Amino acid sequence: MIEQIPYLAVVLIAGIGIATILLKKNLIKMIMGLAIIEGAANLFLVTLGYREGGIAPIFTSAPGGEMVLPTVQAMTLTNIVIGFATTALLLAFAIMIYRKYGSVETNNIRRLRE
Amino acid sequence: MSQYAALLLAIPLLAAFAMPLIGLVGKRMRNSWAIIAMLATVAAALLLVWEVLTQGTIVYAFGTFDSAQAIPFDSGGVPIRILFVIDAMSAFMILTAAIMMFAATLYSISSESEQSGQDGYYALLFLLMAGIFGMVSTGDLFNFFVFLEINSLAGAALAAYRIKGGVAVEGGLKYAFISTVAGLFFLIAVGMLYGQYNSLNIAYIASVIDFTGLSLVAVVLMVVSLAMKSGSVPMHFWTPDTYSSAPSSITALLIVSSMASLYAIFRIAFSLFGLTMNVVTVGWVIIILGILSMFIGVSMALPQKDVKRLMAYHSVSQIGYMLVGLGVGLAVLGDSQMLTQFGVVAMEGGIFHIINYALYKGLLFLIAGAVIYRCGTANLNDLGGLGHSMKWTMGFFIIAALAIAGIPPFNGFASKLMIYESVFIFNPFIAVIAMVVSIMTLASFVKVFHSMFMGPKLPQYEGVKEVPMPMLIGMGLLAVLIILFGLFPDLIVNTLVEPAALALIDRTGYIASVMGGI
After folding, report:
1. pLDDT tens-digit readout, B437-459
2. Rounded CA gap, B305 and B294, in Å?
């Protein structure tokens, strides 16, 4: 049971992120929701590779025994970098929208449909 | 081992990152660099496609000189390198992307010439293309995710490139949101597969797959996220906003990137899971998504006043045809008699429609861009009488509009006929809907044609003249291809489309190309 907790946390965190995106009207908060989902994805990947009592996967003079999986850690690292780029781009968009519209509430960002 | 697969990524990436530096030298230098790099990329793509069509599937292993090293002898039969697996289907997508890249880059040279920040524009354009080429040629799930993100980020930034009082930023923001959420769901699904099969290689996972409940969740997540990214109903709300606010040349490329997502749905459905999952259910889900996209897209398009929004809703509707064609093929994958009777033809129709759609939809958006370039508005109520001054553009519009409506002898007819014929045997009702949608498409384009080009010359467009030569060449190439594909559909189907459809069906062949006949 105890080893299932991280997976439950993943579902919970992803749920919070999705709810934030769907329920909040403020762009900055929606971007935060996206970052929360990203955190859930990262947690999920790292948890997949965790082995009880495993050591860091460095083969040079390793003491032996179980190692945690390195691939998922590399994937997580890549995803963190990608997430950084995405968040930066989205925040840049939010700044631009604030400059042009004077607001970051989605209710006020409706010029496209007019 | 030929290096075209690596060059296909290396050239656009080099071009993209060198662009700001070369832009320092001057405008002329930057434009020449963009054109040279574009021609080099297209050449690499065409050579690669030629090689695949003559020699069969190519497996390119990164980080080694020998593709036999794809699976090192001491790895226990597990591919550990990043592999590109380029079969006939990937080659088909690469060809589509290369044609559109050629047309859109040439077009941009003129259409963006008045804009500031062009260094960034071309850099992002090449990044977008690198993302698309990577998505359609990779054989690795995580690698696919990375290219998906490169493609999304570049696409979103380009969609917001002309700020236009914030309107374009709104479109870019929506695109960025949707594609990031889609990308994250895709990544979680990749994690689920990795947790079960300890590999990211599509062919390896396919060879050991044992369809569990978790794999079902992964399939659902992947199909949903990629359908979001390709702009099919019910997640289509971003397409009109993003397609209408992006520069027209970029809209043409965003269409190719949505095709790349569509390709990924089918690569995953056919090559990764294949018959291990319940193909009838998944096939029907895709067919229903397709029917809804067709119908909702076209009925939303009819009342639109902005020409680019109208065309964007039509692209939702056209994606439905591909989903239906390939969905029917997927639904009958398990039944070899039905598959040979009509399944293969339905898939060929769907795949053929991908390139036809990219050509005529790209051309339509480029035409809309040409009209906006000269008249400064996209509102159909304000436009009129352009047939007097923009004769070439009008001619191209007629070709593209007849092609999208499925009128012979243009390319849309060829692929739609294949879809109608085969889907009719599967379920007549779907074929009838497809035909009705086609008629509604024609109705809506007659309206556009009438309000843009017909009527007397309007005083406010007195000084309007034909668009510059590079834009005409870009549009002309697409128009010529539309006519050629429509006049000689058999040639295209036999050389390009049929191998692509068979490559999708042949799951064991895909696995064997990487795993070496296991």
Report:
1. 999 999 999 999 998 888 888 88
2. 20
Supply the pLDDT for residue B199. 87
CB contact under 8 A, B244 and A112: yes
| Per-residue pLDDT band at B436 (split at 50, 70, 90) | very high
Helix, strand counts (H, E) of chain A: 3, 0
DSSP state of B144: H
- Percent of chain B at pLDDT > 90 equals 63
Token pair listed for A107? 């209710």
Which of A48, A79, A93 is facing B173, going by the closest CB pair?
A: A93
CA B187 – CA B167 distance, rounded (Å): 30
CB contact under 8 A, A112 and B171: yes
* Top-confidence residue, B61 or B517: B61
Average pLDDT over chain B reads 90
Listed by number, the residues of chain A in 75-114 with a beta carbon closer than 8 Å to a beta carbon of chain B are: 75, 78-79, 82, 85-86, 89-90, 93-94, 96-97, 99-101, 109, 111-113
* Average pLDDT score over residue span B266-273: 90
φ/ψ of B31, rounded to 5, equals -65, -40
Chain B residues with CB under 8 Å of A27 CB are 173
Distance CA A44, CA B214 (A): 14
**B113 SS3 class:** coil
Residue located via tokens 């949903």: B224
> Three-state secondary structure along B245-275?
HCCHHHHHHHHHHHHHHHHHHHHHHHHHHHH
Distances, alpha carbon A8 to alpha carbons A13, A14, B20, B317, in Å: 9, 10, 46, 39
How confident is the model at residue B518, as a pLDDT?
Answer: 42
Provide the b/e sequence for B414-424 (b: ≥16 CB within 10 Å). Answer: bbbebbbebbb
Beta bridge partners of B85: B59
Angstrom distance (rounded) from CA B289 to CA B296: 10
B13 contacts B127 by C-beta, under 8 angstroms: yes
Confidence bin at B78 (pLDDT 50/70/90): confident
Minimal CA–CA distance to B391: which of B453, B459, B475? B453
In B119-206, beta strands by DSSP E: none
Say if residues B381 and B355 touch (Cβ distance below 8 Å).
no
Q: Distance of CA A77 to CAs B196, B398, B470, Å?
A: 21, 50, 43
Mutate to test the interface with B, among A82, A91, A103, A111 (most CBs of B within 10 A): A82
Structure tokens of B291?
Answer: 């029917």
C-alpha B187/C-alpha B193 separation (Å) is: 10
Three-state SS annotation for B83-100? EEEECHHHHHHHHHHHHH
Residue A65, pLDDT > 90, answer: no
ipTM of the complex: 0.94
Residue A22 contacts B, CB cutoff 8 Å: no
Nearest-neighbour CA in chain A from B166: distance (Å): 6
Q: Do B177 and A44 touch (CB under 8 A)?
A: no
- Set of chain A residues whose Cβ sits within 8 Å of the Cβ of B191: 41, 44-45, 48, 72, 75
